[in-house]
Amino acid sequence: LSVVLTFIVLHAFGYTLNMMTLGGIALGVGMLVDAAIVVTENIFRHEEMGEGPKEAAINGAQEVWLAISASTFTNIAVFLPLIYIGGMIGQITKPLAVTVTSVLLASLFVSVTIIPMLTSQIVKRKVAVKEATREYWFGPIKRFYRKILEKFVLRKRGLILGITAGLFLVSLILIKFIGIEFMPQMDRTFGIVQVELPPGTSLKETENYLDRLSEIASQYPEIEDVVAIGGVFGEEGGLSLGGASGSHTGTITLSLKDPSLRDRTSYEVINDFLSKIPNYHGAMVKAFDMTRMMFLGANARPIQINIYGEDLDEMNALAEKIKTEISKIEGVYLPEISLKKAKPEFRIHINRVKAAYYGLSAAGIQRELQIALHGSKVSLFKKKGKEYDIVVKADTTFLKEDYTRVKYFPIKTPAGSIIPLKEVADFSFALGPIQIDREKQSRVVKVMADNKGRSTGEIMRDISKVLKSISVPTGYSIELSGEFEQIQEMIKNMLFAIIGAALLVYMIMAAQFESFKDPFIVIFSLPLAIIGVVLIFLITGTTISVPSLVGVLILIGIAVNEGIVMITLIKQLRNKGVPDYEAVVEGASIRLRPVMIAGLTTIFGMLPMALSTHGHGAEMRSPMAIAIIGGLFTAMILTLFVIPVIYTIFEKIKPPEE
Q1: 631 & 588 share domain
Q2: Which one of 15, 205, 396, 648 is CB 3.0 to 4.6 Å from 10, fit for a cystine?
Q3: What is the pLDDT of residues 118-135, one digit of tens each?
C-alpha cells in the first residue's frame, strides 16, 4: 500500500522512474515497516495482557502513535536539507529525498489506520496463554537483557559511558584511513580512450598506432566493438572532450557488453587494456572517467593544481617542478601540464632603446602592428537594414609566402621618416603554447593527473604537504582544483545538511516529548551510529562520497527511532506510578523486541542494495546502504544499553541498594 501511494505522489510531482527514484523506493522499503512493526507488536502485547482484539487495536495504536509519528518525521526531516542543496549534489539528491519522504508518509498513514483495523479483524489470538508458550522464542533473550541491564549496566554507568566514548574517539581517529572521492566509479557500457603522440606526428603514423591499439582491444571478450579515429580530438574535432587536437591525436571508443554479461567492470577492463598498450616514444594514452565527466565536466581530472600568474615561462617552470614532485607520490598516474608548447612562432621583441632613439614607444609600435596585421574597426556601413563593419588593415599578402618579411614592415616616426621594423626590433623562432588558459582574471597553467590505486582525497592530502615545501615567486599563486574542489564543496554542503537535519530532528523530538532534555538524551544515538559507519567503511573499503554521506544523513533520522520509542514508554510508565528505576528497566525490556525487529528489518531490507555490484546505478546505491547498515547496527545494539544509562544520569535515578 505504501509503495502504491508513493507512485501516485511521484506522478503528481512529475518524477519518472529512474536511478534515484527507484533507489529511494528501495531505500524506503527497508524503513517503511518500522512503524508497522511497533504498532503491531504493541497491539499483540495488549492482547497478551487480556484485552480483546478491538480494544487491543485501539489501545495499542493510541499508545505508540505519537512515538512512531515522531520517529517518521525525524526520518523525513533529514531529507528536507537535501531538497534545498544547490549545485550538482542537489540535482542528485532531490528526487531521492522526495521519493523516500513519500514512502515514509504513506507508511505512517497505513500504520496508524490500516494496520490496527486489519489486526482487529484478521488476527485472532488466544488470551489465556502460558508465559512459557507466549514468549517461547524471545523470552530468554529478554530475560538475559533485563538481567544484564539491571545487575551490571545501570550499576556501572561510568564504565559503560567510558567504553562508548573510547569507541567513538577511536572511530574519529580511523576516519583519516578512509578514502575520499566525489563520486564512486560507475560501470558503463562504453569508454573513451585519448591518444596523444608527439606534436608533428603525421596522421598516417597516428592511425597506424591506433590500429595497433584497436587490435589489442578487440581481443577482450568484454568488448563488443572498437572505433578508432585519428586526428580529431578536442574542440576542433568536434568531440568537445578537452585536450589537444591535430594529426598527432586520436580517440578510441570502446563498446562493452551489458554489465550482467561480464564479470569485470568497465573501468577494470579499460585499466587492464591501458596496462597492455605498447610503449611509443612520447605517446600519452589515457582513459576518460565517464562518471567524472558526467558530474564535473569534460576537462575535469581527479588531481588538478592551478598555477596563477602572467609570465608563462615562469609558470611553466613552476609547473614542471610540481609535476616532478607529485610524480613521486603513490597513486599519481599520468601527470601532465596543460601548457603545450608545440606551435611554431616567429616572435617580435621591441628594442626600447632603439625605439626611443627614433622617438617611438614599444606600446605605439605594438598598436600599429596590431592594426596593420589584424585590422581595426573604424565605422559601420548600413545597407538595406543590415550593418557591416568597416575594418582597416594593411595588405599582408606578402607575408603569406614568407612571414619573416615582417622585418621590413614600414614604421612611421614622429619626424615623418619611414624605417623598417627591424631597425627597432629583434626577432626569434620558438615553440609557443597551443592554448593560453585564463581563470579568475589571470593566466593559469594546470598540473593534472589521474589517480590509480588510491582515492583522490588520500592523494590530495599528500600533495598538500608537498606544495608547502615548494617556494612560489611573488605575484604567483597555487590552488588545488579539479575533483578536490568538488570534494570540498560536497563536504561543505553535506555538513550543512547534516547539521540542519540534526536540528530538525531535535526540534521534532522536543515537540513530541514536550521537553528539551529528553531529545538531548536520544541525540546520543548519533555518535553510536558513527562508530558503525567508520568500521563498516574500513571493512568493506567504501569511500566517503556523495552517496555514502547521504547514507550518513539518513542515519540521523533512523538512529534516533529506537531511543524515541524507548524513552516514550519509560515516561509513560513513570506517569502511571511505576518507580523510576523499575520504569527504566521495564521500559527498556518491553521495547527490546520492537527495537531489534525494526532495526533488523531495516538492515535486511538494505542488504540487497549493499551487496548489489551489477546493474545501472549500483555503485551509487551500495555506499548509501552500507553506511545505513553499519551505523544502524551499532546504534541498535549500543542504544539498548547507553540510552538507559544516560536517561538515569539526566533524571538522577540511582539503582537501589542490593
Answers
A1: yes
A2: 15
A3: 877 765 544 444 444 455
Strand, helix or coil for residue 344: strand
Handedness of CA 647, 651, 652, 654 (dihedral sign): negative
Question: Do 508 and 468 belong to one domain?
Answer: no
| Residue whose entry in the numeric block shows the C-alpha cell 524506503 | 28
Using a 10 angstrom Cβ sphere, with 0-12 exposed, 13-18 middle and 19 or more buried, the burial of residue 494 is buried
pLDDT of residue 617: 66
Predicted local distance difference test score (pLDDT) of residue 629: 93
- pLDDT value of residue 470: 86
Predicted pLDDT at 403: 67
Give the Å distances, CA to CA, from 585 to 152, 332, 528.
12, 56, 21
CATH code where residue 588 lies = 1.20.1640.10
Phi, psi angles (nearest 5°) of residue 322:
-65, -40
Give the integer Cα–Cα distance in Å for 195 and 228: 10
Distance (Å, rounded) from C-alpha 237 to C-alpha 223?
A: 25
**Together in a domain, 173 and 299:** no
One-letter amino acid for residue 562 of the chain = E
Closest CA to 185 of 542, 461, 522: 542
Return the H-helix or E-strand segment holding 230: strand 223-230
**Residues of the chain under the 70 pLDDT cut:** 19, 23, 27-32, 85-92, 122-137, 232-246, 282, 289-300, 340-345, 398-401, 403, 430-435, 613-617, 658
Same domain, 96 and 70: yes
For residue range 522-573, list pLDDT tens digits in order. Answer: 888 888 899 999 999 999 988 888 888 888 888 887 888 788 888 888 888 9
Q: Which helix (H) or strand (E) holds 642?
A: helix 618-650
What is the count of structural domains for the chain? 3
405 and 303 in a single domain? The answer is no
Sign of CA dihedral 349, 351, 355, 356: positive
Residues 505 and 605 in one domain: yes
Predicted local distance difference test score (pLDDT) of residue 159: 93
Report CA-CA distances (Å) from 4 to 7, 43, 319: 5, 25, 58
Domain-located, residue 130: yes
> Could you tell me the strand order of the sheet in which 249-256 lies?
223-230, 249-256, 190-196, 284-288
In angstroms, the CA 462 to CA 325 distance is: 11
Distance (Å, rounded) from C-alpha 622 to C-alpha 336? Answer: 33
The dihedral through the CA atoms of 328, 329, 333, 335 has a sign that is negative
Share of the chain above pLDDT 90, in %: 8
Three-state DSSP class for residue 265:
coil
474: cell is: 611573488
Contact 1, 106 (CB under 8 A): yes
CB 60 within 8 A of CB 133: no
